[in-house]
Amino acid sequence: MNRINAFSRFSKNISRGTNEHSYIFINIASIIIILAAIRFMEPIVSPLLIAMFISAISAPLMFWFMRHNIPQSAAVFLVISLVLIVGIIIFHFVGSSLTAFISDIPGYQQKLKVISLDLIPKLEELGIIVNKEELQKVFDLSAVMAFIGKTFNGVLNTLTNAFLIFLLVVFILIEFASFGKKVRLIAKDPEQTMRTLHSFSKNLNQYIVLKSFMSLLTALPIMFVLYLMDIQYFVLWGFLVFILNFIPNIGSILAAIPVVLLALVQQGYLSAIGVFVLFIVVNNIVGNIIEPRLMGRSLGLSTLVVFISLVVWGALLGTVGMFLSVPLTMALKITLEHHEKYHWISILLSNQEELSENSEHSQA
What we know:
Structural class: mainly alpha
Number of strands: 0
Order of helices and strands: HHHHHHHHHHHHHH
Distance between the termini: 51 Å
Helix content: over 70%
Number of helices: 14
Strand content: under 5%
């Protein structure tokens, strides 16, 4: 009898272990299938994400209009009109500067070639032996602009579906007003679901608005100083800084490279060093002093997670994924926070400040 009971317990343990391993395997397989589906449906997913991004920025203004007794249809029309006007103005100024700059690249490239050839003897006098071809690659403005152009083209290719994005934004803004009522009717736990959605919406809107403000705060002084230094296409570089600042970790570096090379071509080494220092100072002040104070724990992601999310979402959705990597990962983290079974993943994604804050709450 004891042997039968022991065998029964042994069988149950094996069964439990098998079920746990099967559960893990099914979860991993599901994640792989979902990621493959996102990659396959990138032409559809990218416009949808851009529309959601624009809607998230525009929604607070629409609700402000509605609070001032403006009908929802009129509020949506006003918001969409404002977005279109701002977009047309930006692309008018930036588009003309970009066209002019691209036409000037061959001339700049020739000057950079001369500068690199003059630099080799000076470096050899200092005992630094460099390869001529490798040095010319460093000063290859066309290669740098080709990479940045590829980044822009990824966004522009998505924006070719402008009409689809426009319709999606309109319908998403219209849906916002009644979305809460629908969730309350279909959710098993309406209050918990609404708290989750409210937390997600609040954090996402806060991140987008503050990140846009930080990007503007970074771009404006750089653009102003470039104007004072008489660096050509300062409006284009200001826009480039603003846009690439949304790409974590590497965005600021990508924005600085073409401006430093252009300053070197136009005004020499001192000007290039000045522009390089300008980017370092502004990015350090905004990124390390102002941004942490204003954004607080709204990001809530560790630096490693931010970088990995940049790589993963960039691989899945291209340039659009790189721009939206942080909001997408934040959405995933907030969703996991409210599921007991997957809460541990949310903890792994958290930064040190949020972990400390959570531990203090648990001790209290």
